[in-house]
Each structure stands twice: as C-alpha cells, then as structure tokens.
C-alpha cells in the first residue's frame, strides 16, 4: 500500500511541474489527499495564457463529465427518499422517451441501466463521423445547440439503441436523461436538485451550472501539433472514437439546458470534498448501502469496450475490480472518471488516497501520458506495467 511520503510528494511535484512548464498542460489545480489529510496541493500555469492570468486555487473549470458523479449521487439520494427506484423504467417519469432497437422493438430501460451506461444509448462523439446521432441533430450537452433538454431527448429517442438494455456497455447521454428524470420526479430544476442534495450539504459553494464569478472561469485549450491551442467559442475535438463538438461559450449562455452529464463548473477544492465524502461512506449525502451501490460493480461480467479484463462500471464511475488482470497498480475497488475538457479524478479506497486534477487542456489533462505519469508518481509504477 503506497504512503504519500516526502519522496512521493517530490515525484508528484516534478511530474506536475514538468507537464505545465513544458506546456503540455496550460494550467490547472492538483489536489491529493490520503486518509483525509491533504498531502499535495498546487495551482500552476495559466487560466488565460494569452492575457497572462494565472490559475489560482479557487479558479473554476468546466467539469464536463465529472458532472456525472453529482447527478448520480442526486439520483441515489432520491432513491433513498423513495422518490425514485433504480429498477423502475424510465417511462415511469418520462412517458415519451421510448427509443427502439434496430428491429423496431421497444425495450424497457431502467434507471439503473441509465446510471451504469448499459441502456443502449450512446454519444455522438462515441460514433464515427456522420453517425445517426449527428444526422438526428442530437446534442452531446457540450455544444451550443439551440435546444431545450426535452427537445434533445426527443431527438435522442428517435435514434435506434445500439444494443438491448442490460446486454452491453456504452458511454452515453444516459446521465442527461437521468437529469430529466430528476426534474420530473422532484418538480425542481436539475441545478436546484443538485444544489439541494449535493453541493449545499457539502458546502460546495463554488460548484454549479451558473456560477457567480464566471469571469474567473479558466479559458479552454485543446491539444495541437505545436502545443495546446486556445479553443474558439464553437470548436471540435478529433478523438479516436469520433468528433466532439464543444462550445466554450455554453458555460456563459443562460439559455443552455443543464446537462446532467457535462454541464457543471467548479473548483478542485469543492470536488475533492465530494470524493472524500464518498470515500468515507457517503455521509451526509448518502447512506453506506447507496454509496456502495454507486461505487460497486453494476454491470456484472459485461466487458467495457476499450477497458478489457479487470474493469467494471458502477452507477457513475469506472471501477477497478481486479488490478492483476488489468495490470494496474491501484488497489481493488479504485473508482475514477474523467472529463473531456481536461479533468480526471480517482479514489483508491485500499490506500485511502483521493486525487483530483482540473486542467483547462483537452484532452491531455483527462487521460493518456499525463494521467499515467501521476499514477506512476504515487505508486512507482505506470498502468500496464503492474
């Protein structure tokens, strides 16, 4: 079990400083805790490189898919309150959301399948260019499409499911659907619901869909052939899986719908507070059973494409179920996820370590060389070498 001692802290600092000083990462905030004690914290680089505005500890970033964890916690709290039921069909709350399979059958999709991404839905950026999502005008919740959430779900429901719900795994817009379920079930907007059941109880005052102090929001950058390039108001990321259409202006657009899968803004301090709450059992947000459900294997033996053996998915994060099979140095039960704008987190419950890094550089801050180097700095071994 790793201990974050002076030597590990030195390696962490060297890795972090090198990524920012070489320009791989334009700017960001890194926070690492062990057994509830902050062991490393650093704000480094530029929030706005062109205007020489430095990143500060309280700089807010676009959380992108780190939003999903808060939507999942909200949904599970509503299950505890018996407002929702994980086994219930989506149509109990969204009667018109009835996507079909390619053969025309209309299967039932449960809330559990939404949260575990086993519903048969997808993202446009998870499919090749010119896919059915693009043809139907479905927003991934990252662009500035002039749609309400209801209009987007109508378009989403018109696209055939990729597989029978419960019979596969595919990263998807399902958490946006869950956001609509939460609104319908509570009579609150999604921002109000997440504030009531997540951010306010934890004092996460710098996290929300519509933050005060947006002028301090970190500018967004994307990987380029000669280093990170500043994103335009409307831009595109070319990923291995497909094309992701992003609008940096969406965060400042009061008409943009609240995406339960990608819409939050927030700080590293706030997010670490959430990770530590869940690591320690979930109080005051969730009971221990709900927290275990959130962070446990929700897909059984289903293989996650691109992950392989030793990995599963919970009701929000990916879960390391077998470090030996996965050839990964972190402990069994480590849970994690990333956000397209350049963020990622992980929590190793065996070692008691929680880490979050929010950067403004897509996708270098989210996955790949930099993320692996942080793991190596703490464990002395990179993923794939364990």
Instruction: Look at the helices and sheets and give the structural class.
Output: alpha+beta
Question: Could you give the order of strands across the largest sheet?
Answer: 3-2-1-14-13-12-11-10
Number of domains: 2
Tally of individual helices:
11
Cα separation of the termini = 13 Å
Low-confidence stretches are none
Q: What would you say the CATH architecture of the largest domain is?
A: 3-Layer(aba) Sandwich
- The share of residues in extended strands comes to 15-25%
CATH first level of the largest domain: which class? Alpha Beta
Write the CATH homologous superfamily of the largest domain: DD-peptidase/beta-lactamase superfamily
**Helical percentage:** 25-40%
**What name does the CATH topology of the largest domain carry?**
Beta-lactamase
Rg, alpha carbons: 20 Å
CA-based shape: globular
Q: Summarize the helix and strand pattern as letters.
A: HEEEEHHHHHHEEEEEHHEEHEEEEH
Mean pLDDT: 96
The largest β sheet comes out as: 8 strands, antiparallel
Structure write-up:
- The chain has 386 residues and is of the alpha+beta class.
- The chain has 2 domains: 6-67 and 205-379, DD-peptidase/beta-lactamase superfamily (Beta-lactamase); 70-196, 3-Layer(aba) Sandwich (Beta-lactamase), CATH 3.40.710.
- It contains 11 helices and 15 strands.
- It has helices spanning 6-21, 67-80, 111-115, 132-135, 149-157, 174-186, 190-202, 268-279, 288-295, 323-326, 369-379; strands spanning 27-34, 37-48, 53-54, 61-62, 221-222, 229-230, 234-238, 243-247, 265-266, 311-313, 318-320, 335-339, 343-348, 353-359, 361-362.
- Strands 3-2-1-14-13-12-11-10 form an 8-stranded antiparallel sheet, with helices on both faces. Strands 6-5-15 form a 3-stranded mixed sheet, with no helix packed on it.
- Helix 2 crosses helix 6 (174-186) and helix 2 crosses helix 7 (190-202).
């Amino acid at each position: 079990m790793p201990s974050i001692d002076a030597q590990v802290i030195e390696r962490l600092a060297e890795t972090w400083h090198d990524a920012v000083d070489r320009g791989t990462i334009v700017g960001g905030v890194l926070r690492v805790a062990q057994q509830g004690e902050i062991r490393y914290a650093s704000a480094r680089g530029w929030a706005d490189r062109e205007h020489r505005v430095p990143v500060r500890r309280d700089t807010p970033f676009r959380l992108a898919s780190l939003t999903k964890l808060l939507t999942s916690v909200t949904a599970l709290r509503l299950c505890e309150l018996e407002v929702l039921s994980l086994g219930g069909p989506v149509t109990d709350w969204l009667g018109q959301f009835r996507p079909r399979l390619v053969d025309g059958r209309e299967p039932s999709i449960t809330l559990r399948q939404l949260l575990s991404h086993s519903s048969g839905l997808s993202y446009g950026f998870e499919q090749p260019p010119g896919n059915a999502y693009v043809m139907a005008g479905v927003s991934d919740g990252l662009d500035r499409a002039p749609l309400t959430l209801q209009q987007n779900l109508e378009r989403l429901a018109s696209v055939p499911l990729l597989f029978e719900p419960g019979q596969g795994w595919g990263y998807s817009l399902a958490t946006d659907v869950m956001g609509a379920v939460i609104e319908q079930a509570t009579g609150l907007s999604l921002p109000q619901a997440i504030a009531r059941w997540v951010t306010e109880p934890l004092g996460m005052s710098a996290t929300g869909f519509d933050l005060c102090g947006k002028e301090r929001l970190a500018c967004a950058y994307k990987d380029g052939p000669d280093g990170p390039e500043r994103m335009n108001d409307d831009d595109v990321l070319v990923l291995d899986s497909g094309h992701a259409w992003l609008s940096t202006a969406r965060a400042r657009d009061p008409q943009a719908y609240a995406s339960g899968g990608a819409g939050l803004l927030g700080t590293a301090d706030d997010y670490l507070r959430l990770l530590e709450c869940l690591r320690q059992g979930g109080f005051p947000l969730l009971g221990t059973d709900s927290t275990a459900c959130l962070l446990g294997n929700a897909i059984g033996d289903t293989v996650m494409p691109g992950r392989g053996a030793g990995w599963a998915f919970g009701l929000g994060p990916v879960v390391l179920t077998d470090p030996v099979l996965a050839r990964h140095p972190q402990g069994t039960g480590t849970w994690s996820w990333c956000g397209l704008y350049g963020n990622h987190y992980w929590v190793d419950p065996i070692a008691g370590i929680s880490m979050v890094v929010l950067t403004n550089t897509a996708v270098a801050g989210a996955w790949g060389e930099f993320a692996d180097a942080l793991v190596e700095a703490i464990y002395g071994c990179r993923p794939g070498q364990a």
